[in-house]
Specification:
8% of the residues lie in helices and 55% in strands. The chain is mainly beta. The protein has 2 domains: 75 residues, Dna Ligase, domain 1 (2-Layer Sandwich); 86 residues, Beta Barrel (OB fold (Dihydrolipoamide Acetyltransferase, E2P)), CATH 2.40.50. The strands form 3 sheets. Strands 1, 2, 3, 4 and 5 form a 5-stranded antiparallel beta sheet that branches. A 5-stranded mixed β-barrel has the order 6-7-8-13-12. Strands 9-10-11 form a 3-stranded antiparallel beta sheet, with no helix packed on it. The chain is elongated, with a radius of gyration of 22 Å. One of its GO terms (biological process) is transcription initiation at RNA polymerase II promoter.
């Protein structure tokens, strides 16, 4: 689910940036350091507003100025039981990995239809039922998230395709 969140961050700027370029330096640092970051269980997609800064506070003995930046950010938090679309990254005998933005999920064989099997013959590894569903690298798939975990600036999870309207997408 996407949502807008108000964030507050402290930045330290060297005194050499004081002057007309200070606002640009703070704005640049906000975008490079905050966008794409994972915090708690959500991913910061982009900064929407970044024009509010506190008065600078001099740090004694260091030559740096401390600023607090107030911003609004567009964030994405994947929820358990949410249905999302992703792209298959890798296939292994026990299942496959797919990427959904910043989230990488694993779909195990137990969470696929019972008639699916792993095949390594032909064009490369694939999961297929030899009828209407073949999952290979770069296929677009629709999955239901069973669990999501945030660890060390990464979002990981497990998912299933063993329900109606889930699995490989027709236009992939």
């Amino acid at each position: 689910m996407f949502f807008v969140k108000e964030l507050e961050r402290v930045f330290y700027v060297h005194a050499s940036y004081l002057g007309s370029g200070l606002h640009n330096e703070l704005t640049k640092r906000i975008h490079t350091e905050i966008e794409g970051m994972i915090e708690d269980n959500y991913f910061i997609v982009c900064i929407l507003e970044d024009d509010k800064f506190s008065e600078g506070r001099t740090i004694p003995g260091g030559g740096h100025i401390e600023y607090t930046a107030y911003m609004k950010a567009l964030c994405w938090q994947p929820y358990k039981r949410e249905v999302v679309d992703g792209v298959v990254l890798n296939l292994v005998e026990s299942g496959f990995f797919c990427e959904i933005g910043a989230l990488v999920v694993f779909v195990s064989q137990e969470h696929m239809p019972k008639d699916m099997f792993f095949e390594t013959q032909g064009a490369g590894p694939q999961w297929t039922n030899n009828k209407d569903m073949t999952i290979e690298r770069s296929s677009s798939v629709r999955v239901r998230l069973l669990g999501v975990k945030a660890t060390m600036n990464r979002l990981t999870g497990i998912a299933t395709i063993n329900e109606d309207y889930l699995g490989v997408l027709a236009n992939s």
